[in-house]
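Reproducibility note. Readers wishing to regenerate the assembly model reported in the main text can use the exact inputs given here. Chain order matters: entities are listed in the order in which they were concatenated for prediction.
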Amino acid sequence: SQQGEEDPQALSIQEGENATMNCSYKTSINNLQWYRQNSGRGLVHLILIRSNEREKHSGRLRVTLDTSKKSSSLLITASRAADTASYFCATDPSTRNQFYFGTGTSLTVIP
Amino acid sequence: GAVVSQHPSWVICKSGTSVKIECRSLDFQATTMFWYRQFPKQSLMLMATSNEGSKATYEQGVEKDKFLINHASLTLSTLTVTSAHPEDSSFYICSARDPGLAGNLLRFNEQYFGPGTRLTVT
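Running the prediction on these inputs yields the following structure tokens for the assembly.
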């Protein structure tokens, strides 16, 4: 399977704390993206990091990419209750014009 | 940003009937669209890649005769679940890339997702 894996599967934190979730993938990639999905809804694009980048920031989001380890992490700082959602990484393999999603992390931020 | 719509947003059908789901790119022309399926509390699984004017490419394990894909125009792809069964109940999501972003190195690989269609087969 091309699908990547994320950990943890579920994460519960207090509002104001930071949340870190990790993604591992299997093949070489052009880029890696993170998406957010509220329960039963569509996906919202959060951030894209290219294979030649190591770190990227967007507001309270910080993404790192280690291509040697085939892994990425998403850090959400100063979490809010509204951040409660599922987060997925998606890889864009070098050899195929398609996306493969990780298994996802379910984040719950407790007010 | 680019907008992708899906219709219907939810549908209930009886076992044995067929259901058509539409995916439209509203403000750009999409030569390629993707169809995903998501079971409850699971990730999105790519089902097929829909190419305008040609046959869809299906992922391993996805029955092409059961999940018919038609991409007859640059703004519309349809997924028809034929002879639906309860195990086909799922959340179906489409996505599209905007080829107009090909010159934007920061964005050209972004996919725009539809809001999804919840299918329940009784």
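We highlight two features of this model. The mean pLDDT of chain B is 88. The first strand of chain B starts at residue 4 and ends at 7.
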